[in-house]
Each structure stands twice: as structure tokens, then as C-alpha cells.
Specification:
The complex is a heterodimer of chains A (273) and B (368). By secondary structure, chain A is mainly α. In chain A, 72% of the residues lie in helices and 1% in strands. The chains are: A mainly alpha (273), B alpha/beta (368). Chains A and B meet through strand 1, helix 2, helix 5 and helix 12 of A and strand 1, strand 5 and helix 3 of B.
């Protein structure tokens, strides 16, 4: 085997170590690809429909909630259901990453304590698992968009950029919160309740147009920008320029702040598990 | 070429403050001399204490020691799992660790799928795994079972599967923790054969086990750990001599030692601390009697014993006691104790008043 011989040498700088970790983790895509997919399969093992249940339960939820809330809010079903479907599916992606991020290292304790692998591998696994869930759920979105005859043009592709933003920010968030949650076990339930709260504060069920333009609750809610960067292009609406600015800023700031923090704490992680 | 190099490696486990029993901590500090440490950042247990170790090609090291001595922790350090709190670790070579049989196994997936999965964990590419999957399945001898979900396997069958994959990777360094206990006799033969061929081509093996037979038959070196420190290292024979003499010999009895020194009771509840270890590290220097009528005063004039004390070599001093004890009049043999027939009369021993020696004939007659 002409492969490079792996080495352990703890005299390397922590910062460099983290960058190497991120790269090595990415290279092991066979492993985290498999693990992420296994996670989904495992949930539906021995069931007849398997991961198709993801799609089905999402479809049922959106159908029922869509009809109910359209009545409550007194809006057109053809307008409300696509809005709700996209928002809900995206929220599942976001909340999935936020909640899985808390447990990214705690749940991998068995592996981390047995074998030396890049820490980022577990982060990629979580992101991949949630991306796969999104793909299952997006079947519902596509179905809804076709059913309600929503036009598609080049701008629709912007939705892919928005998805990319969610994933890449999920990366730094999971890495950081995963370590913190291992150290401070009270953080996990805190995040969980905050995520529930954010669901109601973010315009998923209700339309942002109900609130006067540039309201505090929208402008300073990062989740709104993440959701909007995908939902707006899909519904054929323009995305506000500030949304792209906010997303870019969060991405850069997040990674720049997290890499040094992770370098400091990453070495201690295994002792906290 | 593969090597492992540890220099002054310490491993500290943080303990949340509220969880540390205060009285335990106090007594531990009193008698053990600082295994529980406190700093501004909080309290911690030192699981490994300034370990310096150098392993190179051909070393098959057995890790010996009682529960809590630090064997598994050391293996995990070697595997790169625990970054040391202090000290340097340098290590070169592909490591395969078999610390936990079920690592990365998906119980619902088939044997074949799990070979794949474990292979990926060990850093093989899909292509490499596909190439050696036949060899692996042959070695496991599991036949058609490999297409079944592995939740139907017995622990012995899981062991076969895990062992087959791990050794097929052709690692430079292989680390194992009590691995063979579930294998049947035939598998153990196979496993030993496999290990031998693989040790001859590649390099280093680390094995932690309580089975003396296993370590004697597979290792060419041993390390005795206690309280996170290396108490002895060298050939398997030497290390077991120390371990058996102090660890499990009838001469040194745990209850006897504690009953004579009741103040030690609290410190013995600390994981990893055994009375015999306390004796050779502290007791001998504090003039504590090991029991059985042996009084350390009897050795006051003995040059071998006093020089061992001066050089702080508890092991050598204890060994001296072991050799002299059968000749002391005051010695009360413990239950199950047998006189070593090859024991030689210690001509150079200088008696202390009140502790005369008996002749070798009398000694043999007395304890036969």
C-alpha cells in the first residue's frame, strides 16, 4: 500500500490540527455517507415502507395543517399550501441540524472513545443525514409545486444557493454546539426549547407580510433569512439583498470564530464524554 | 517503520466538583500522595502518571495490572483517542484497535455489510475492502451466517468477525483489550497463528489482559501498571514475577495488611489502589509491617534492605523481605503458603536483636 503512513504527533499546533481534521473528515466521505444513510435506514428498519415514511408523514402533516390554517387565516389554499410546504420542509432541515448538532459528539461517544477519527467526520454525518431527510421531504414540495402549477425559471436555482448556506452554517454550528453540549449537559434541553420557540417566531406558518416591513422580529431573525433565501425563489418572489448579506456575514463570522474555539476545546472533548 | 513514543505522558480525567466525595479526597491525598488533584479549573483524577514508553518493530507488549490500573486508558492513548494532558506522544504507523468488539457494527445489517462498515472505519477504501472480502469471510468460518443480520450472532461469532476484519487491514500497530475471552479453542489457535504471521511481517502489538496464559503465549514484553504508573517493565517473566508476588501471592494478604493498619482503609477504596502497591510505594518507607509476624525492624541491619530503602526502590526492598521472611523466627506463614525449595540461606544477612534467623534445615522442616 503506497498510502501515506498515518502519524500522531501532539506537538502540532491546535489550529492546524483543526484544519487538517476538517479536511481528513471530508475525505472519508465513504464512511460518513454510509453512516448518515444508515441512521435513516435504522429508524425504519423492518418497516415495509422504510424511509418513504419520511415523505408520507410530511405529506400528511402539510395537507392537514395547510387546509386548517388556510381556513383560519382566511387565505387561498392554492397560495397557502405551497408557502407552508416549503417553509415546513426547510424548518425540518434547520431544526434537524440544530437538534442533531447538540448530540453530534455525545451520540458518537462509543466511536470517539474507541478509534481515532477526525472529529469533523461526525459533523459531516449529521449534515448528510439531514440533507437526505430534506431530499425525501422535497418530494412533497415538488409535488405541491406541480399540483398548484407554480412556474419555474432560472431564479429558482437560487434556492440551491440558500440550501448550501444552511448546510455550511450547520457545519460550524454543529461542531461548536456539539462540543459545548458534551461539556455542559444543560445546554441541550436549552437549545431544544429555543428551537421550539424559534419555530413560532419565524414565519413558517404565518406569512411575513402580516408584519410591517423590516420588522425587528424578521430582520434580526437569522432563521427568517435562511428560510427566505430558499422559499422566495421557489415561489417566484425576489430575495431581499440584505438577506444575502446577512447569510454571507453569518457564514464567514461563524467559521472564523468557531475554528479557533474548536481548536482549543477539541482536544478535551473526549474527556467530557 | 512503525514506532510508538510516549514521553512523560499524563492523562487527567476531570471530575465535576459536586461529584467528588470530600472525605474520600482528603484521605486519598493523605495516603496516596496526590492522585486526586485540584486546580483552579476543577478536580481531576490522574489516570496515567508520567508514562514514558518506547515501542518499536517486533514488540508484543502485554499490559498487566488489576482493575483500574490504567491498562485500557493506556491502550486508548496509544490508539490516539485520549490526547495527553501533559507530555509528548509520537506515533507512526497504521493503527487498528480492537478495544471494543462491537465498534461500528450495525446489528441490523448483515455480516457482509458490517465487514464493509468496519473496513471503512479502519480507513480502507471500498475497493480495498471488496478485494479482501473473500479472505475475511473465509477466516471467520461463518459461512452462510454472513448474509444474516449480525444481531443473530453470538458474542463469539461477533468476535470472529471483528478479529478477521481488524487483522486483515494489515495494521502496523494492533491494540487489543481482553479480546480472546469469548473465542473457542479452535478460534484461539487460528487467531494466534494469524497474529504470529502478522507480527513477523509488521510490527507492534499491545494487549491488555488478565489472563496470564494469554500474555505469556502471545507477548514478548510486559508492562505492569498500577495507579496509572508503570511499576515494572521488561520481559514477561520478570513482570509476572513482580505481579504475582505482590499482586496475588498468599504472602501478602490484603485483609491482613488493612487490619494491621486500619488508617489505610479509606485509601484502598480508590480505584486502582491495591494494598500491595501501597506497601511497596509507601508502607515500606513508613515502616509499616506487611503482616504475618514480619516486623521491619528485623531488617534494620541488613545492607540489602537499607540500601533499597535509600534508593527508594520499594520493589527491591519487598523482594528482600520475601527472601528473608521464611528464616525469621517471628514469621507466621499465611494460609496456603509454601516454602520455596530453591531458597538459599542468606549468609550476608545481619540479624537485629530480638529477630534471630533459623537455619535452612529448620526452615524447610518448619514449612514442609
Amino acid at each position: 500500500m503506497e498510502k501515506q503512513i498515518p502519524q500522531i504527533d501532539n506537538s502540532r499546533s491546535n489550529f492546524l490540527e483543526t484544519l487538517v481534521d476538517l479536511r481528513q473528515g471530508l475525505m472519508m466521505y465513504h464512511l460518513w455517507g454510509r453512516l448518515g444513510w444508515n441512521d435513516i435506514l435504522q429508524r425504519y428498519r423492518r418497516s415495509l415502507l422504510g424511509p418513504l415514511w419520511l415523505t408520507i408523514s410530511m405529506a400528511v402533516l402539510i395537507g392537514a395543517l395547510g387546509l386548517l390554517y388556510a381556513k383560519l387565516f382566511k387565505v387561498d389554499v392554492a397560495e397557502y399550501i405551497p408557502f407552508l410546504a416549503i417553509g415546513f420542509v426547510l424548518w425540518q432541515l434547520i431544526s434537524g441540524i440544530l437538534l442533531d448538532g447538540c448530540n453530534v459528539f455525545v451520540h458518537s461517544e462509543g466511536i470517539i472513545k474507541q478509534i481515532k477519527l477526525p472529529l469533523s467526520l461526525h459533523v459531516y454525518r449529521v449534515l448528510w443525514r439531514n440533507l437526505l431527510t430534506l431530499l425525501h421531504n422535497s418530494v412533497v414540495v415538488i409535488f405541491v409545486m406541480v399540483y398548484f402549477n407554480i412556474g419555474v425559471n432560472l431564479d429558482t436555482l437560487l434556492a440551491l444557493l440558500g440550501t448550501f448556506f444552511i448546510i455550511i452554517n450547520g457545519g460550524w454550528f454543529s461542531f461548536l454546539i456539539g462540543i459545548l453540549c458534551a461539556r455542559y449537559r444543560d445546554l441541550n434541553p436549552t437549545i431544544a426549547s429555543l428551537v421550539t420557540l424559534s419555530f413560532f417566531l419565524t414565519p413558517i406558518i404565518w406569512n411575513p407580510s402580516l408584519i410591517p416591513d423590516r420588522a425587528f422580529i424578521l430582520l434580526y431573525n437569522p432563521f427568517f433569512h435562511f428560510v427566505e433565501s430558499i422559499r422566495a425563489p421557489l415561489l417566484g418572489n425576489p430575495v431581499a439583498v440584505e438577506t444575502w448579506w446577512v447569510l454571507t456575514a453569518i457564514t464567514i463570522l461563524g467559521w472564523v470564530l468557531v475554528v479557533p474555539t474548536v481548536s482549543k476545546m477539541g482536544r478535551k472533548l473526549v474527556y467530557w464524554l | 517503520m512503525a514506532y510508538i513514543d510516549l514521553k512523560d505522558v499524563c492523562i487527567d480525567f476531570p471530575i465535576p466538583k459536586s461529584k467528588l466525595n470530600v472525605s474520600l479526597k482528603r484521605s486519598a491525598r493523605h495516603t496516596i500522595g496526590g492522585k486526586f488533584k485540584s486546580s483552579v479549573g476543577g478536580s481531576y483524577v490522574r489516570a496515567l502518571d508520567t508514562i514514558t514508553l518506547h515501542l518499536t518493530k517486533g514488540d508484543r507488549v502485554g499490559l498487566v495490572g488489576h482493575n483500574g490500573a490504567g491498562k485500557t486508558t493506556l491502550l486508548r492513548v496509544l490508539a490516539g483517542v485520549y490526547p495527553p494532558s501533559n507530555g509528548k506522544i509520537r506515533c507512526k504507523g497504521r493503527i487498528a484497535s480492537l478495544l471494543d468488539i462491537s465498534l461500528g457494527f450495525d446489528l441490523e445489517a448483515s455480516g457482509y455489510e458490517n465487514i464493509f462498515l468496519r473496513g471503512l472505519y479502519l480507513g480502507l477504501s471500498k475497493k480495498q475492502i471488496a478485494e479482501c472480502i473473500d479472505k475475511i469471510s473465509n477466516f471467520t468460518n461463518l459461512g452462510d451466517y454472513l448474509s444474516m443480520p449480525i444481531r443473530t450472532y453470538s458474542s463469539g461469532m461477533l468476535m470472529r468477525l471483528a478479529f478477521a476484519i481488524t487483522t486483515e487491514v494489515e495494521p502496523d500497530i494492533i491494540l487489543m483489550d481482553e479480546w480472546i475471552s469469548v473465542g473457542d479453542a479452535r478460534f484461539m489457535e487460528q487467531a494466534k497463528e494469524r497474529l504470529e504471521s502478522f507480527i513477523s511481517t509488521s510490527s507492534i502489538m499491545g494487549l491488555a489482559s488478565h489472563s496470564e496464559d494469554l500474555i505469556r503465549s502471545t507477548c514478548n514484553k510486559a508492562i505492569l501498571l498500577g495507579q496509572g504508573e508503570i511499576l515494572a517493565q521488561g520481559s514477561v517473566e520478570e513482570v509476572y514475577h513482580h505481579y504475582n508476588f505482590f499482586g496475588s501471592s498468599a504472602f501478602f494478604d490484603i485483609d491482613e495488611y488493612i487490619s494491621i493498619h486500619p488508617d489505610l482503609e479509606a485509601s484502598m477504596s480508590v480505584p486502582g489502589m491495591a494494598p500491595w502497591m501501597h506497601f511497596i510505594r509507601y508502607g515500606i518507607f513508613e515502616g509499616r509491617s506487611p503482616g504475618f509476624g514480619i516486623s521491619l525492624e528485623a531488617f534494620d541491619n541488613d545492607p540489602v534492605f537499607t540500601s533499597a530503602l535509600q534508593s527508594r526502590n520499594g520493589l527491591a526492598a519487598a523482594e528482600r523481605i520475601e527472601n528473608i521472611a521464611p528464616f525469621l523466627v517471628s514469621f507466621v506463614p499465611p494460609k496456603g503458603w509454601r516454602q520455596n525449595k530453591e531458597l538459599r540461606y542468606p549468609d550476608e544477612f545481619i540479624e537485629t536483636e530480638g529477630h534471630p534467623l533459623i537455619s535452612i534445615e529448620d526452615s524447610l522442616a518448619k514449612y514442609s
